[in-house]
């Protein structure tokens, strides 16, 4: 990107927001400084503007900083822009009930993936993840599907495209196995990855294959719904 199309102050403010990665609900000024590498005085100036527009708040109890309501508003707007939303949720519930495992829909966000929609398994022992969770693209069935359908030209991406699905066992979490397929629009454009994941100890090869077939059926029903 050309330098004239970038605003350093905006990028620094966004770097502050990126510190809130979901691992901790609130951060101290020192923690923000450590994560960004910025001087505390710089962070305070940036936070002043972020607070003004509702992107960051400060807890009165301990002075720690948290994300503000404006972030939720933008996140909600982003999720609403998917016309698929109304169709995906019933499919996720169907997949969960059919397989007994957790069903999810992921989209790509730069070099990461975001769990946009999810229906967690109703079993007490399950693979649980919250909507909005950000995960790397370095492992997991949904990551391989996303990479394969967004420009991946390596051998694994080729195999995933040929198979029309990806399977992972213990890649991101040693106790979790997952199956994922692409969700395409009516013109073949990639929308996201539809996934079923569960404890590897019970989500064995036969069940994964059955889940893959159920996922393909769901993806076929979703195809044609335009974003």
Automatic annotation (TrEMBL):
InterPro entries registered for this protein in UniProt = GAF-like_dom_sf (IPR029016), HTH_MetabolicPath_Reg (IPR050707), Tscrpt_reg_IclR_C (IPR014757), Tscrpt_reg_IclR_N (IPR005471), WH-like_DNA-bd_sf (IPR036388), WH_DNA-bd_sf (IPR036390)
Transmembrane regions listed in the UniProt entry:
none
Q: Which Pfam families does the record cross-reference, listed alphabetically?
A: HTH_IclR, IclR_C
Q: Which Gene Ontology MF annotations are present?
A: DNA binding; DNA-binding transcription factor activity
The record, for Gene3D superfamilies, names:
3.30.450.40, Winged helix-like DNA-binding domain superfamily/Winged helix DNA-binding domain (1.10.10.10)
In this protein, which residues make up the domain named IclR-ED? Answer: 70-227
List UniProt keywords, sorted A-Z.
Answer: DNA-binding, Transcription, Transcription regulation
Q: Where is the HTH iclR-type domain?
A: 7-69
* Highest taxon in the source lineage: Bacteria
Which residues are the signal sequence here?
none
List GO BP terms, alphabetically: negative regulation of DNA-templated transcription
Q: What is this protein called?
A: Transcriptional regulator, IclR family
User: What organism, scientifically named, is this protein from?
Assistant: Caenispirillum bisanense
